[in-house]
């Protein structure tokens, strides 16, 4: 009987670790429409859509204000920055065109740096949570 109790305790712990609520506790959220269906893709969130966002400590009523599908990704920003640099290296570029490209490049660079910093902070938080849970040791990648 003690062996069965221990086995039951292990299975209960595994089940708890796999619970969607445990995932929410790690900073994730779940969105559902008015009928309770899970919203999974950007297409599920047209502007004006009302939905319930469930976070670690309960539900939050929400409404989509803006469709961000036209917001460039970090990869798109980097590709555009590389294109801007190639164009700025052209000796035949007019001064006004060069200034416009330079301004766009600086703005995209700031946005890309900010996105990268947010992503790095999220990765470090996940690693720190994993380190605490599993006794792992973290070392910085860049020195």
Mean pLDDT equals 83
Helix fraction? 40-55%
Radius of gyration, taken over Cα atoms and rounded to an integer in Å = 23 Å
For the secondary structure, the number of strands is 3
The termini sit apart by 53 Å
- Per DSSP, the total helix count is 4
Beta-strand residue fraction: 5-15%
Q: Mind sketching the topology for me?
A:
Blueprint: H1 2-17, H2 20-25, E1 30-32, E2 50-55, E3 58-63, H3 74-88, H4 95-134
Concise summary:
This protein has 143 residues and is mainly alpha-helical. It has helices spanning 2-17, 20-25, 74-88, 95-134, and strands spanning 30-32, 50-55, 58-63.
Description:
This protein has helices spanning 2-17, 20-25, 74-88, 95-134; strands spanning 30-32, 50-55, 58-63. The mean pLDDT is 83. The longest helix has 40 residues, at 95-134. It has 143 residues and is mainly α. The chain has a three-stranded antiparallel beta sheet. Strand 2 and strand 3 (58-63) form a beta hairpin. Helix 3 runs antiparallel to helix 4 (95-134).
């Amino acid at each position: 009987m003690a062996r069965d109790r221990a086995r039951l305790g292990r299975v209960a712990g595994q089940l708890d670790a796999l619970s969607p609520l445990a995932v929410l506790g790690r900073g994730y959220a779940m969105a559902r429409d008015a009928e309770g269906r899970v919203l999974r893709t950007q297409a599920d969130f047209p502007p004006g859509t009302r939905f319930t966002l469930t976070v670690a400590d309960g539900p939050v009523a929400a409404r989509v204000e803006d469709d961000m599908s036209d917001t460039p990704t970090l990869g798109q920003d980097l590709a555009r920055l590389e294109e801007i640099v190639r164009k700025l290296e052209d000796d035949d570029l007019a001064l006004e065109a060069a200034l416009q490209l330079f301004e766009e490049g600086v703005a995209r660079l700031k946005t890309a740096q900010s996105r990268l910093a947010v992503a790095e902070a999220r990765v470090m938080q996940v690693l720190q949570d994993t380190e605490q849970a599993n006794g792992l040791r973290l070392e910085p990648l860049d020195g």
